[in-house]
Automatic annotation (TrEMBL), chain A:
Alphabetized InterPro entries for the sequence: ABC-Purine-Binding (IPR052910), Peripla_BP_I (IPR028082), PnrA-like (IPR003760)
Keywords: Lipoprotein, Signal
Gene Ontology cellular-component terms listed: plasma membrane
Domain ABC transporter substrate-binding protein PnrA-like: start-end pairs: 31-313
Source organism of the structure: Acidocella aromatica
Protein name as it appears in the record: Basic membrane lipoprotein Med (Substrate-binding protein (PBP1-ABC) superfamily)
TrEMBL record, chain B:
Entry's localization field: Cell membrane
Protein name per UniProt: Simple sugar transport system permease protein
UniProt GO cellular component terms: plasma membrane
Organism: Acidocella aromatica
MF terms in GO: transmembrane transporter activity
Main localisation: membrane
Amino acid sequence: MKLKNVAACALVALCAAAPAAQAQVKLDGKPKIAFLFLGTATDGGWSQSQNAARLALAKAYGQKIPYVDNVPEQTAKVEQEIDLFLNHGANIIIAGSYGYSDAFAAEAKAHPNDVFVNMAGISSTPNLESFYGKTFEGWYLAGMAAGYATKSKSLGMIEGFPIPDVLWDVNAFALGAQAANPGTVVHVAFVNSWSDPVKEAQISAAMIQQGADVIATDMDSPAALVVAEKAGKYSVGYQVDMAKSAPNGILTSVEFHWEKRLIPMVAEIEKGSWKSGGTPLYGIKEGVVDDATFQHIPADDIAKILAVRQEMIDGKFSPWTGPIADQSGKVQEPAGQTISEDDLWNMNYLVANVKGSMK
Amino acid sequence: MGKLIVSPRLAAPPRLAAFTMLGGLGAGMLISAIFLLTQGLGLSDLASQFLGYTFTDPAGLDQTLTRAIPLTLVGLSVAVCLRVKFWNIGVEGQLWAGALAATTVPLYHIGPEPVHLWIMALAAMLGGGAWCGVCALARLKLRANEVVTTLLMNYVAYMLAQQLLYGAWRNPEDSFPVSRAFSPDETLALLGFGHVHAGIFFALAAALFCWWLCSLSRVGYMARAVAANPLAARAVGVPAAAVVLLMATLGGALSGLAGFTIVCGEEHKLTQFIGNDYIFPSIVIAYLARTSPLGVVVAAVAVAALYTAGDSLKAFYQLPGATVLTIQAILLLCVCCGEFLLRYRMDWVKTVKVRA
């Protein structure tokens, strides 16, 4: 009986302690934000989309937001830059790189009263949130557009690293193309870098030579699109609206609008009501991901794409509803079922109509 | 009328040596300050960034000291080689070779687990030493200029590292081009002051050892003879070739050890860019220290402080990262100019017209 009491007491204590551990982070004073960028702030892609968020935050909060760019995915360098900002009074550190995950986790543990945000990261603590976009929603719609546009039924897509949140981009693109134009295949190539414009252009040219008539890039630069434009082929951009790089052939760009989540997040932090959401995904509904205006395809097709977009917003449609088979023909998701977000983070295969290897 | 006569000094008085060094540094700092002021920095910004943050702020000091660990080792590497007039322009390659050698230990489970860290340090020294020793051999046997060979070996090591990171050593979990993380036993412990890790003891011990070697040991004495006049040294029975080989290999081992402190103390795995941007500072440090091993420690801390200040210039004043490199170059040039005044004396001689 006594033992039971002790256990009960311990349980109560635990329950009381648990919310305390999960409690909101209380900032010392007003929010002071600082940014780290992987590339240059004007790289035409990834870092530029985050710089746009920085400028939007600066406007919304009327403060100058300092940043450093070209921070390599090297733990010591990332930690040094974070420390620098914290020591100069910053209390919210925002960055966006998968390769910063370890450094952000270490810094978040060392500075529990500051808030850390690492977009596209995979680590989280009570004061570190690594949110990302449901890029697959944008890519599915872009895949539909490519499916409607293609004549050769052969698409090319250039990718960075074969990690889950990149694999879901190519898979969604392929599924969208398949839905719009059955029998369409997507040729994929991995560059093993986030930005390597020379290689991206070479791969783009090679894919066009092999018959691809839509080139989609999942990289930080528009290099592949420039090649497609010159060859008179269609293209799909990423991260920012890349229409300027390929005005005559671009179908759309899968865009990030990080500020759509960051501005409300900072407001919550200021109020003291913010809690780390772990590694949440925000999509077209929240506005974090969206496609740029569709063009160069018939209006009927655009209407069909926008109808699917609306179903995504209403929660009536997911690209991940089965049947989904991988390259080997193995069923990864049976008909009628939908892959959960947790399982998406473990995606390690390419779907059946993708040609190319993850190696 | 008159003219300027420049003549070499037979012996430089020590007081002048100190004076030209300080004068060179002072002039360099003045020019750097003017350069920064033209870039839109205020005087108070300069003082707060360079003196305030880098030395008095604990976090700034933490960054400076952490950075100084590999900088000390690569500085020693160049300094030791210069003791035998061997120009080591290859510290990055040797650092990579050391880091790669160290990484093989956890990846292939070499030796008993509890002493992995020590085996890694030893492997790193062997790797770096071999990388530089080969260049010394090439100079001794093939008369290949070491400035060229050590420089080119940088690229060989870098490409080898990338080959491994994109191939056999790629992280199996996410296919990222980094090695898998080392276990806690295979990393250098933090000392409770920010990011400063136990590698600082390796750096200080290396500096003390080099000081002993260069100043007190017989090898150091022979090295001085070889540096002054290799032919004469050989004539009196100094094994000149062996001394050059030994000092160059030791120099390489020191850079290799720098690679070890980075992968084990900072990254806790092998990552893609660890060896970048060490060549120029290593030469600046060795030169500022006039190849004195203990002086290297001071110069390395100073250069590390420059980087710390440069980071905040980049972050808060949007100055490009190359600013720090520019300042290092200004300092180096000024100290070199001071060196000129130390080696040569300049006399203004009045010409007297003799009437016939």
